[in-house]
Structures are given as C-alpha cells and as structure tokens.
Design brief:
Distance between the termini of chain A: 40 Å
Number of helices of chain B: 0
Structural class of chain B: mainly beta
Number of strands of chain B: 13
Helix content of chain A: under 10%
Radius of gyration of chain A: 14 Å
Low-confidence stretches of chain A: none
Largest interface: A-B, 26 and 26 residues
Order of helices and strands of chain B: EEEEEEEEEEEEE
Oligomer: heterodimer
Order of helices and strands of chain A: EEEEEEEEEEEEE
Number of strands of chain A: 13
Chain lengths: 124, 113
C-alpha cells in the first residue's frame, strides 16, 4: 500500500524559505521510472503543479517558479524535500506530494496516490 | 504551457441523472509512441486530496465505480457520471501529464439539484 505524508511549517513569514518534506512508503524512488511530484492549491482555487523528481534524480520544475524551487530526494529515508525561497502571501496554499507510477509497457502514468496535504500560510 | 479549460464551471444534476463535464487542451496530449492520451480526471471533496478517477483519458482507476467514464480524442475530452449519487458531490479536475509543466483545468463543481 502506497502512502505519502507531507510535513513542514504551517506558518512562514514573507521572504522566508519554506522547506517541506514528503515521507512515503510502499514504493521505492530507486525503481525505474517512478517519480514524486509536488502540487499546491490556494484556498478555494485550482491545483498547480510545482516540481517532480524521478528515480534517476532527474528534476522538473514549473517554469514560473523555477528560480525559487528546489526538489531533492533521500532514498534511504524514503523522503522528498521541496524548498521554496522568498515566500509571499500569494504562496499561501495546501501543498501536496504525489506518486507518479511507471511501467515498462506504457511508461509514466498520472499521479495516482496523493498525500493529505499540508496547509502553509504566509503572513507576517 | 498546455492550457486546460473546463466547462461548465459548475452544474447541478438530480440524483440518478447524468452529469457531463468537458475539458479541452490547448494542444495535443497524445503520445504517438504508445497512442495514449495523457489526460486524467480527478475528484476532490472538501478537505480531501484529489482522487484519481480516470487516466489515459478513458481508463478507470481500480476501485472507481463504473458510473464514471472518460472519453475523448484530439484535444476534447469528457468525464461522464452516468447516474449521479450523493457522494459524487465534488469538484472535478482534468489534468494533462503529457509534458511539463503539468497543468490542471480550473475545475468543475458538481452539486445535487
């Protein structure tokens, strides 16, 4: 059974750096093709994809946020860490991490299992 | 970026009736090497994360009731709930995972009439 759980601060001040951790179980981020992504959702608004890290440490970022984001993995701890610099009130959102499966026949799939999310408020 | 649009923004359907949600991508999400549309549908209820309903535009995720179906081709896709149940009240999002940046539609709210 695959599970993911996000953790991190619930409140950050403007200009600070946000660090979120996704701790997962039920799969390995060393398995060929597997990925873990981060997606956020401001209150009452739509989903926005932020970043993705693959089994081979390849990384992808939202172009609009690329200069502020960093995604890393620790395969020994089954964790993926997202760092976002220079936080602003508009970054107030629920942040989700999600599993992206893969198989040798069809390749990469849609995000199938999501964490419960962690709400981050940016305010002074 | 591939822009995803959805219509309507919201709809209210009587219990047992059909609900249809449309999604359009600004460019093709068809991967020619496997002939799959990289289009998914998610259901999100208040306070919950999105739940995957449909992937490859028409493949139902395991455990999803068969009243949910996906269809479409080209750049136009549809999610159909054949007989709306009370537990289907939610916001539904389409999503392209063909290329980064991955993008989501703005969502369609489904309520009971």
């Amino acid at each position: 059974q695959i599970t993911l759980k996000e953790s991190g601060p619930t409140l950050v001040k403007p200009t600070q750096t946000l660090t979120l951790t996704c701790t997962f179980s039920g799969f390995s981020l060393s398995t060929t093709g597997v990925g873990v992504g981060w997606i956020r959702q401001p209150p009452g608004k739509a989903l926005e994809w932020l970043a993705l890290i693959y089994w081979n440490d390849e990384k992808r970022y939202s172009p609009s946020l690329k200069s502020r984001l960093s995604i890393t993995r620790d395969t020994s701890k089954n964790q993926v860490v997202l760092t976002m610099t220079n936080m602003d009130p508009v970054d107030t959102a629920t942040y989700y991490c999600a599993h992206r499966p893969y198989d040798n026949i069809w390749g990469s799939y849609a995000f199938d299992i999501w964490g419960q999310g962690t709400m981050v408020t940016v305010s002074s | 970026d591939i822009v995803m649009t959805q219509s309507p923004d919201s709809l209210a359907v009587s219990l047992g009736e059909r609900a249809t949600i449309n999604c359009k991508s600004s460019q093709s999400v068809l991967y020619s090497s496997n002939n799959k549309y990289y289009l998914a549908w998610y259901q999100q209820k208040p306070g919950q994360p999105p739940k995957l309903l449909i992937y490859w535009a028409s493949t139902r995720e395991s455990g999803v009731p068969d009243r949910f179906s996906g269809s479409g081709s080209g750049t136009d896709f549809t999610l159909t709930i054949s007989s709306l149940q009370a537990e289907d009240v939610a916001v539904y999002y389409c999503h392209q995972y063909y290329t980064t940046p991955f993008t989501f539609g703005p969502g369609t709210r489904v309520d009971i009439k």
